[in-house]
Amino acid sequence: MVSCLRRLLDDVPGVFSPSLARLIGVEQSIGAAGAELKAAILAAEDALQRIRREFNRDVRDRLDQVDAIVVNALEKIDVLRQEGIKDANELMKRADQILARTAADARSLEKTIKEDLSTLIFEAECSIKRTIQETVPETFGGIARVFGGNEIVITPPVLYKGEKRWFCIGDCRIQTEFRISQPYSETYFAVRDYLLQRLDQMPDDGPINTVVSTYEFLGAFARRAACFVPGSEQRYIAEHMDFRDVASAWTTLLGDDLGMGR
User: Keywords of this protein's UniProt record, alphabetized (predicted)?
Assistant: First the structure.
């Protein structure tokens, strides 16, 4: 993982802070606290880049805060080195304590940044009052459509080449209907669980695009569901971000030609 991060830092200048590059080298010998700090920093910077790209917001101040957390940790570790501690175990113990405290600060900042992103997503998605039927387009990446005004028909990505319904005429793709219920959370969870269960059943040699398309759809579906679950909006936005992150990880690994409609 460290080598991949180094490659990202080389290939995408300006996306990650220079201090993070130094931290990656330090973390190799530190352990869980360093790994937690690195994960928090990466997650915070990813959320900030999304705020910048999707909402055209200036995130320089927040990026400076992220960088300051890393710089602070590195400075404290440098002080330890200068103290000339000869006991390697003691040095590692104290460095680990520094990183553990710093990781807590980073997680707190990550939480704040993700809350900012969540608010922006909700405002963008739900600022216009629309019906549930209006928010599920006729073709949702080829996966969902409204049928009869009170049902959502899901046509999931295939689990294996040639998967289809038997004894059918015309469109033989697998299709499942879900009632648009009140509360809408019941519909959302029914669709979500159905698609996740299908992924669990996919053979090892199943199409990777099925995985990416499913998570992309679930991310978009959760984002829209947030508008119809008063008081629980943040839960659905959080699921949206989680599903989106899984899909993004796959496309980063395997290429941007994967996903819904591609």
Answer: Coiled coil
